[in-house]
Amino acid sequence: MKIDVLAIGAHPDDIELGCGGTVAKLVAQGKMVAFLDLTQGELGTRGTSETRREEAASAVKVLGVNHRVNLNLPDGFLENTRDYQLKIVEQIRYFKPDIVLANAIDDRHPDHSKASKLVSDACFLSGLPKVITHSNDSVQNPWRPKRVFNYIQWKELEPDFVVDISEYMEVKIKACLAYKTQFYDPASKEPETPIATKDFLESLTYRAQNLGRLSGCNYAEGFTTDKLLALKNFDGIIL
Ligand SMILES: [Zn+2]
User: Fold this and answer.
1) What is the total count of domains within the chain?
2) How many angstroms separate the CA atoms of 27 and 65, rounded?
3) Alpha helices (runs of H) in the chain, residue ranges in sequence order
């Protein structure tokens, strides 16, 4: 298996919220994208692991992504341990992505920053030949993704770059709303949570619009990166 981009999230719905528009755009450009969820989101106040699984399956259909794996690590208790790093290394070596998209380096949910460090370390370790992992009883070859980009989610972090998602804003919202139990639903009898409010749903659009305003497009998603980015030329820039 060789894909272009592996998007990783601590919880099912993180990828859709943080970079769903970018994923939809990559898929439209013919790129191979896969999703890796670290936990089932089983501590979520609303819904259950079961509903979350069904919702995650609907969301990838909306985005046109064919592969979604869940590592079943414990929600709320992610740690940067050897055991968890190796589980992620196995997936990186299986999918062989050039680019990894990972959680925000700092966010409201403590799992997000923990996942960002865990994923960065796993990407590095995955390139070391003496770190041995197996797939179907055979030893996996080392593989190091060339870049890790962290998608901005809840907190207003300063992006290092943004991706124009103007044509994919609608599909992003549709993918997020596939998580019926998690987001705003006026008919729901479940307890209110910060992400289930009408305000939060609206914030997805106005925050993307604001990044678009600052960068010269209608809607954008922001990312940070710990490695300096170079442009091959000026052709892809929104002027
Ligand atoms: Zn999350």
Assistant:
1) 1
2) 7
3) 14-28, 49-63, 82-95, 110-125, 169-177, 198-215
Distance 201 CA to ligand 1 centre (A): 15
Cα–ligand 1 centroid distance for 17 (angstroms): 9
CATH of the domain at 113: 3.40.50.10320
CA–CA dist 102, 36 (Å, integer)? 10
Taking the CB of residue 29, how many other CB atoms lie within 10 A of it? 8
Q: How many angstroms separate the alpha carbon of residue 35 from the centre of ligand 1?
A: 14
Q: Is residue 229 part of a domain?
A: no
- Give a yes or no: residue 205 inside a domain: yes
Confidence at residue 163, expressed as pLDDT on a 0 to 100 scale: 98
Query: Ligand 1 center to residue 179 CA distance, Å?
Result: 13
d(CA 231, ligand 1 centre) in Å: 31
Boundaries of domain holding 126: 5-224
C-beta atoms surrounding 231 within 10 Å: 9
Contact 24, 175 (CB under 8 A): yes
Across the strands, what pairs with 139?
134
Cα–Cα dist 9/216, whole Å: 28
- The model's pLDDT over 77-111, given as tens digits with 9 standing for 90+, comes to 999 999 999 999 999 999 999 999 999 999 999 99
Q: Is the pTM here over 0.85, yes or no?
A: yes
- Name 100's Cβ contacts closer than 8 Å, sequence gap at least 6: 5, 6, 7, 8, 92, 119, 123, 145, 147, 148, 149
Mean pLDDT (the chain) is 96
Q: How far is the CA of 153 from the centre of ligand 1 (A)?
A: 9
Q: How far is the CA of 186 from the centre of ligand 1 (A)?
A: 22
